[in-house]
Structures are given as structure tokens and as C-alpha cells.
Amino acid sequence: MNNFVHILFSTDFAFSVLRVMTPILFAALGALISNKAGIVNIGLEGTMLVSALTGVIVSAYTGSAWLGLLLAIVAGVLIAALLGFFTLKFKTHIILGGIAVNMFASGGTVFILYLVSGDKGASTSLKSGVLPSIHIPILQDIPVLGPILSGHNVLTYVSLLCVAGLYYMLAKTPLGLQIRSVGENPQAAQSVGVRVNRVQFISLLISGFFAALGGAYMSMGYLSLFTRDMTAGRGWIGIAAEAVGRSTTIGTFLSSMLFGAADALANALQVFKIPAELVGTTPYVVTVIGLVVYAVTEVKMKKRKLTKSKEKRA
Amino acid sequence: MFKASQFEKIRTVAVILISLLLTFFIIAIFSKDPLGTILIFLFEPINSLSHIGNVIEMSIPLMFTGLSVVLLFRTNLFNLGAEGLFYFSGIVASTIAIHATLNSWLHPGVAILAGALTGAVLSAIPGYFKAKWNVNELVSSLMFNSILFGVGLYLLNYKLRDTQAFINASYKFQKTALLDNIIPGTRIHTGLIIALLCIFAVYYYMYKTKWGYELRMTGSNRSFAEYSGINTTKVIITVHLLAGFLAGMGGSVEVLGMYSRFQWTSLPGYGMDGALVALLAKNNPLSVIGAALFLAYIRIGADLMARMSDVPAEMISIVQAVIILLISAEQFLKFWKTRMLLKEAGVRE
User: Fold this and answer.
1) Interacting residues of A280 by C-beta distance below 8 A, sequence separation 6+
2) Which of A106, A114, A281 sits opposite B317 (nearest CB)?
3) Which of A84, B45, B141, B307 has its CA 20 to 30 A from that of A244?
4) Nearest-CA distance A56 → chain B (Å)
5) ipTM above 0.90, yes or no
6) Burial level of A305, CB count in 10 A (0-12/13-18/19+)?
7) What is the pLDDT of residue A27?
8) Strand pairing partners for B304?
């Protein structure tokens, strides 16, 4: 037990929480921006997968990890555009569209991986690049904080910047206002001249952008190769984190950190003699618990509001 | 007389044709012998009795999971938990197949029933969450897939594993527990009969009973159903129980019908395929038969193509994604339907 507490409060664990949290946070931000516009992008898992593979292949063939990242983003945005085209133009059900995207990505990435590398499991035969880690001067020399906050992959810092950027965009820009109004009441927004479909489409593209960053991080930061279905549910956990965070930027960030901690905990617990199969379920169990707690709280809040309005009426 | 249902059939056929054209396009791009590969994909599955048997045997688990998802989708529930239930119930059925001592009639029956009941009980958990607190059933069911897989794999590795076997597999099932082969020269097993019986039972339930009516009403408009006096909470939990029962039964039937040991070390994928079958069937239980056979056919076609040519089987998932996108696209071919309706109205005028 002493060992457990020691692990939990070590700087290594805190460092790994930030590292593991990154793809979940990107997915959660993607879910947030699309949810704000009133459409649920559940194709995040598939988008991340496609971007992860694109990043690996491009960086292997060009020798540049940055070019891999760029084209990974392009691929992610294209997938989101495809989803947007079908759901907004053809009126495909948004959830079914997301399921299709994920199915396409799961098999399609193996298909392309096999064509490019001859391997169906992993891209070990490709010499793909890795995005650099950043050691922040001055900060890295501070005790406790230094080991925790310095030395992360560049995309981890990008994810933190994206939280701030998204907060600003939603709260302070015309586009953010349009997105929020479309999500609140599309008919009202339309009546004052906002082009609802276009705003929702833009939101999906931004969502794809965030998912692409998460996917690229998985294959060029967290790991240095692509393996089949490597996102392993992180897109879904991101969606759950966004819900638990009550569709706010700060809430989404905090719940992503919670779920990231659960994932990091699963990694840390491997040193104990707990079967790996059971430990591996930790992130998913915590996600379900988070969803239930959030939903129960919602129901109680609604009841409380109802009670108050009744009291006022009486 | 032009009918909406006729239009839907035409649209489904159009979707299938488009997906086949896409298949040919992909093959043409990647294969050195496109025509030969296309012919393999199209006709090899009916080229021999054993290949036809492969198609039918693959359709059996697809019927179970497709039927499970039909119930959920008709209630407007997007639960994709059939995957984990399928796997975990297979573990439960395997445990009974290994350790219980019963005669050849009772043994598979008890194992399958145990698997099915396990599926029902486990499915009720996210169902209860959804019905009571409106927990997002899509994410929670997917999380349960991973949880059930982890727990199931633990049970396989620590409780059921035969260390004498060369592969990561359970002890051998007792012969009395296995499902009979019903067509010589193939591996088609008794599970096919069970699947067909379940399909007709679900059809009867959905369209001939008041509970089925409540289910469909709840799916169409939950608020309206509640105002009409239907207890939608009870309906949602019941549907989850039934869907879980079917998915669990499917997992049990599959392991006892096709294997002599439990040897899935990853989720087999039939749960997600159930969603595809349900969509192709337009959430109609009787159409699940045709949809499952079609999906099994193109799957076997892709597998045989992969073995006999230079195109990997995974390209089929690209085709499947397109099928989902088009088949649920309300606006797809809408102009054509509108024109037909207008023409008909013109005749009447």
C-alpha cells in the first residue's frame, strides 16, 4: 500500500498523466466544438486513426515529421468534411455517419498499411519520424514542477494551447457566437441570417482538426509507429470527457485530465501483481463511472429546478 | 401504384450496386489482374458446396447480432454493446461446455441459455443507466465492450486456459456440448435453426404483441409514448434485456457451433457488424436474414479474394462504411422519389 501511494504521488506519475491525457484532450475538444454547434461528431475515433496512419506514412516517405503532421491534419479534416457532406447534405443520421467513419477507418487503415508496408499489424518496417519534445528553460530547473511540466512532446503543449484558443474562440469571436447560437437554437439563428449548415460544417472541420492532432500524437509522439486500432477507444473516452465536462472548455479539460489519470494509473498498476487484463479495463470503468455520475447529477439538477419553479408558482 | 416501401427497396438495391461498383473500383486500382480478382470476389463464394457453407455459417452470428441491434435501433437506442456481450457470453458458454457433465441434448442447451442470460443481465446495466438517468448509451456500451473483453480475457488466461495447447485457448469442450453439423460437406450447424427461430420470435414480438407496439412507439417518439401511458423506462430496460439475450445467445452458439475450444484473444467483430446488418435490414427483423447473408457473402468473397489474389480483405470495410453512409442518407435519391410522387399526382389530376 505504501508503494501504491508512493507511485500515485510521484512526479513521474504526474508527468505520465499529462502525456497520456493528450490524445483524450484533443478528442474531447473535437467533441466540444461539434457539440456546441448542435451535432455530435462520433467519428472522432476513426478520424484519429486515419490521421495517425497518414502521419506515419508521410513522415516515413518524406523524412519529415512536420510534413507528416501537416498531412495528418489534412487527412483528418477531409474525413470530417466527408462526414459533414453526408450528414448535412444527404441527411445521413449523424450517429450512423460516425459509425461508418469509424468502420471505414478501422479496416481502411489496415488495408493501406498492408499496401504500403506489407504488414497488417504495425508499421515497424517504415522509418517514420517523431515530433520533438520540448524542455522549457527556467521551468525545467524548478523542483517538482520542472519534472512534471517540462520535457513533453510538442503536441502536449499544443493541446494545452488549444484549450485556451478554443475558449477564446467560443467566447470572444463572431464565429464562436454563431456556433453557440446554432447549437442552442438553429431556427432562431437562421431567422437572423446565420447560415446554419455552413456553421455546422465549419465546426465539423475544426473537430476533425483536433482529432487529427490527437491521432498524429498517438503515432508520432506517444508512440513512434502505427499499430492497427491503436487509438483503442480514446476517441470515445474523449466524447465521454466532453459530456462529463458539461460542454464547457474548462470542464472538458478537467475531465480529460481525470480520464487521462485513469489511463496512466492503469499503466502504473502493471508493477503490482494484478492481472494486466483487469488493469487494462481501468480507463473504461472510470469513463462509465464518470458518465453515470454526470447523468445522475443532471437528473437531480433538473428535479431541483422543477421543484423551485413549483414553489415559486405556489 | 408507386409505394414508399417500394422506393425504399429500390434505394437499398441502388446502395448495394453502388457499393459493388466501389468494390470493383478499388480492386481495379490495386490489383494486377482486376478482372480475375473481381470474378473471384463475385462468384467464388458460390463456386463449391464448402464455400456456400462458409457463407451460411458466417451469417449465423450476424443474424443474432443484427437482430439484437434491430431491437435497439427500433427503440431509438444507439447501443453498440453487442460486441462485448457476444465475447463474454462465449466465455460463459465455454465454461459450461468444459466443466459441466450433461447429455448431448441438455449440455449445449444449458450452455447457450447460460450465455444468453449472462448477455441479458450485463446488457441491463447500461440499459438501466439509460432508462433511469439518460446516460449516453453509445459511449457507455462501447466502454462496456472493452471492460467485458478485459474481464473475459482474464478469465480465459487465468481460469480456462489449457497450457498444453500451442495457442492461447481454453481446455477442450466436451463433445456432448458441441452443436451438430446439419449439412454434410459444410460446417453449417444447429445454430442456424436457432437463429431463424429467434428471428421469427422477434418478428412476432415486435408486430403482434402489445409490448412490441410499446417498443416501436417509444422508438418513434419517447415523449408521445409517455403521454400515451407507456412506461418507457420499463420498455428501454426490457429491450436491453432482450437485445443482450440475443447477442449473448449468438456468442454462445458461435463458440459451440464452430470451435472445440474458446480461442478468441480479441473481440471478434460481430457486434459492430450487427449494426450494419440492422441498417441493411431497415430495422426489420425478417429482413435480417437477407442482410446477414449478403454481408456474409461479400465477406467470404473478400476473404477468398485475399487468399487467391493480391488484394487484402480489409478493403471490404471501406465498402461497408459507404453502405452505412448511403443507406441511412435520407436525401439520397430523394429527388427521384419526389419526381415519381409528382408524376403520380399529375396522373390523378
Assistant:
1) A266, B150
2) A106
3) A84
4) 19
5) no
6) exposed
7) 96
8) none
The whole-number average pLDDT for the span B200-213 is 93
- Tell me if A291 sits within 8 A of A244, measured CB to CB: yes
From CA A22, how far away is CA A218, in angstroms rounded? 9
**Do the beta carbons of residue B123 and residue B115 sit within 8 Å?**
no
Would you state the cell numbers that stand for residue A24, as one nine-digit string?
483524450
Residue pair B55/B183 in contact by the 8 Å Cβ criterion: no
User: Is the Cβ–Cβ distance between A103 and B272 less than 8 Å?
Assistant: yes
Q: A1 burial class (0-12, 13-18, 19+ CB within 10 angstroms)?
A: exposed
Asked if A71 and A262 count as a contact pair (C-beta separation under 8 A), the reply is no
Look at the block and give the residue holding cell 477442450.
B172
Partner A contacted by B80 (CB < 8 A): yes
C-alpha to C-alpha distance for A312 and B1, rounded to whole angstroms: 58
The DSSP 8-state label assigned to residue A134 in this structure reads E
Interface contacts A/B by beta carbons within 8 Å: 139
Which stretches of chain A drop beneath a pLDDT of 70? 1-2, 314
CA angle (A45, A51, A56) in 5-degree steps: 130
Integer Cα distance of B326 and B332 in angstroms: 7
Pairing of β A133-134 and β A152-153: antiparallel
Dihedral over Cα of A153, A155, A160, A164: its sign: positive
Three-state secondary-structure class, residue A152 = strand
CB A130 within 8 A of CB B113: no
Give the CA count within 13 Å in the CB-facing half-sphere of A13. Answer: 19
Which residue in A96, A236, A281 is closest to B150 by CB distance?
A: A281
